[in-house]
Design brief:
Shape: elongated
Mean pLDDT: 80
Structural class: mainly beta
Distance between the termini: 73 Å
Largest sheet: 7 strands, antiparallel
Number of helices: 3
Radius of gyration: 23 Å
Number of strands: 29
Strand order of the largest sheet: 5-4-19-18-15-16-17
């Protein structure tokens, strides 16, 4: 099934999120007023890819980055449904590649706890053209998400196994093979946020309940009282990567990198100490990156939250190499280094870094930690699992996070 765009409305330059190995999604702006010469670009919002903590492992380069800014183009390039074709073979329509100039952004599969999945491009579960986002060029710059993008022939193409159907108004609608899921948080993305309900978005932007499994042929039920309009804090899952939508207004409420650095320096200025070794602990500078922990790196027992310096005692090898017994409270559990969360757009508030996710040890404010710990993210074809937004590691334990207990200097 193909939906072909009107060539008089569209143009050869479109915006796409594209996955290496021929997979991804498109981002469009709607046809409306043109930008004036010399006018500052208007930002519609940003997409933040969960699991990278502010930067890809090999650095943000070109179209491949962990934070994707959507801005108004000098000329509109939106499209409208036009000619519908039924084709017998996908070879009739060219299949795009991530090197084509119509693709703006490349999104790779995220491996839990490890950033980009290595060696998984050939087995990627992200649809070739996963989604597109249409943004109004006039205030309030509403952004709407649609399943499927456009191939090299400017056609929307769905594979043979993708669910598709004709709508009452005569258009064709459908779902990508593994689906484009969206969750809007209740109460916006703020200190009072709570996770919403996951829905699936169709090619025409209609909202459906989830299918029985991710790639089932039978679509879910139409949800008529919900829309495909993205809100601040909306999550977009492409079955392999999850993105967070932030509006410009929402980003103004988020902490800045300067604030996060000030919090790090303030925490280090308090001179926390290891309660056993009595050495002074300090969070490393973000510029050093996540390399091997240094001798001042704070470590935590994620079951109780007691913060120590690194030591080699208390191992419980019968439970695994990371299992240790806390010398203060005797609870046994993972013992991991602490790392500050550096992607400010993932934070709900500018609160102090008081909590750590379990078991990865990424540190953020209490409200940020509790929100993500209770937010189920799609995993595979059936499952949902809470994960650390900074590294993608699945959360464990009763609460998924723990309050950090530091010991101050004895002097």
């Amino acid at each position: 099934m193909v939906l072909e765009g009107n060539p008089e409305v569209g143009c050869s330059r479109t915006s796409d999120l594209q996955h290496p190995g021929n997979k991804g999604s498109r981002v469009l702006s709607s046809p409306s007023e043109e930008a004036q010469p010399g006018e500052e670009p208007i930002k519609y919002g940003e997409l933040i890819v969960l699991g990278y903590n502010g930067c890809l492992a090999n650095g943000d380069k070109g179209r491949r980055r962990s934070r994707l800014a959507l801005s108004r183009r000098p000329h509109a390039n939106g499209v409208k449904p036009d000619v519908m074709h039924h084709i017998s073979t996908p070879l009739v329509s060219k299949i795009g590649r991530s090197t084509e100039n119509m693709i703006d952004f490349v999104v790779t599969d995220t491996s839990p706890g490890g950033g980009a999945a290595e060696g998984h491009s050939a087995q990627s579960t992200i649809s070739r053209y996963a989604c597109r986002i249409l943004c109004d060029r006039r205030p309030p710059y509403t952004a709407r998400i649609y399943a499927a993008g456009f191939d090299a022939s400017s056609n929307i193409f769905l594979g043979e196994r993708a669910a598709k159907w004709r709508t009452p108004d005569g258009l064709m609608d459908g779902l990508t093979t593994n689906g484009v899921l969206v969750m809007h948080p209740a109460g916006g993305f703020s200190e009072d946020s709570a996770p919403g309900v996951w829905r699936e978005i169709s090619v025409c932007g209609n909202v459906y309940t989830l299918r029985d499994s991710r790639s089932a042929q039978q679509r879910g039920k139409l949800v008529e009282n919900e829309s495909n309009v993205l809100q601040d804090g909306s999550l977009i899952d492409l079955c392999g990567a999850t993105l967070l939508w932030r509006t410009p207004a929402g980003l103004l409420r988020a902490p800045t990198l300067k604030q996060l650095e000030a919090q790090r320096q303030e925490a280090n200025a308090a001179r926390p100490q290891c309660p056993v070794g009595l050495s002074t602990l300090a969070f490393p500078s973000p510029a050093r990156g996540r390399t091997a922990p240094d001798k001042q790196q704070p470590w935590v027992y994620v079951r109780c939250g007691h913060v120590h310096g690194y030591h080699g005692w208390g191992c419980r090898r019968e439970r695994g190499p990371q299992e240790r017994e806390c010398p203060l409270c005797r609870l046994v559990g993972p013992y991991v280094p602490l790392w500050l969360g550096q992607e400010a757009g993932l934070c709900l508030d500018p609160g102090p870094p008081s909590h750590a996710f379990a078991p990865c040890g990424h540190v953020c404010s209490e409200k940020t930690a509790r929100y993500w710990a209770q937010t189920p993210l799609p995993h595979g074809t059936h499952a949902f699992h809470a994960a650390c937004p900074f590294c993608g590691a699945w959360l464990t334990g009763e609460h998924g996070c723990v309050r950090l207990i530091f010991q101050g200097p004895l002097d």
